[in-house]
Amino acid sequence: MSLRSRLTRRARVTLIGVAAGGVAAAIAVVPSLADSDSSELATVAAQKETDYGPEPEADSKLVTQVSELSTMATSTLSGDTMINRARTWLTADNGGPVPYSMERTWKDGYRQDCSGYVSMALGLGQPGLNTVGLADSRVTTRLSSVSQLKKGDLLIDYSTTDGDFRHVVIFEKWADTSHSAYWAYEQRGTYGTTHRQLRYGIGSDNYDPFRPVKLGDGGGGGQLPSPGVSWPILQSGSKGADVRSAQQLLTARGYTVEADGIFGPKTRSAVIQFQESRSLAADGVIGPNTWSKLIETVQYGSSGQAVKAAQTQLNVYGYGLAVDGAFGSNTKSAAVAFQENHHLQVDGVLGPETWRTLLGTR
Questions:
Q1: Is 30 in contact with 12 (CB distance < 8 Å)?
Q2: By CB distance 3.0 to 4.6 Å, which of 4, 140, 275, 278 could disulfide with 282?
Q3: Measured in whole angstroms, how far is the alpha carbon of residue 54 from the centre of its chain?
Q4: pLDDT for 1-23, tens place per residue?
Q5: CB-based contacts of 297: which residues, under 8 Å, 6+ apart?
């Protein structure tokens, strides 16, 4: 979680009291921060105590217990995989970052604070460890110096001496040859998921470098699934590419629905009719059970509305396909690239797992 603006932060945070109209304001100058679009030092207004609370402790229902990880199978989780997972939260909220919260979980089941975010990137149990848990020897190994940092490593401030206001970020790469700053992913207050240059751990502060032990998700070892690959929930009022794809799939099933990306009364009526035809709960809401019946496997040579739905989804990831309903070489190339990027079986065929990842990764 981003708690760099806490009034309880270390000596490197300089507090400047500014009196205006009899009201005192505090400005926290944090030399260790630099936004991704600027190399200037970040200056942020100190937040009120009610904006942030102490990090959830290990006995909280919002925190996964470290002891619960003992059954998780070890797996080869690469730095690239971790970064790919971390990147998904930058655009997961309808193209924007996942909002910060210590009290809520995102639709992938992970807590929306810094340690929940890192737990997601590591594929650890939901809703995620807290920062102290991430520094546990069963989860990470402490490095002797920041010079050893590699892609996917962590910088953790896990000290409990400052009121439990702790933080963790994911190291991506050094920003310069002098190793005076690095690019990192973090989940911080006000901004949510952020990719920017940081200096945590460089110099005198309470951040230490750690390397994940590469724990899996309890699935029996092997390849880890992509993060947040639960089917999206669509209902009256929903909008966007997922709705458009659902409308195209409904049309492929014989229902007359305009693919306008707006979940209105006609779309809901078509969903209810489809659910009734498949002996599903006819509530007009497209959830996991409805998605699994609604999708169609498409591949090279396929054509029609289901292919348009696939092309619509692939374009969300920037593949720039013509939504023409023809599964040709360009669509297959995009499907193969998507599968490679999300560590799926690479065959260019959009089956259930690829569909679920297409719809659920954001």
A1: yes
A2: 275
A3: 22
A4: 433 333 333 333 333 333 333 33
A5: 349, 350, 351, 352
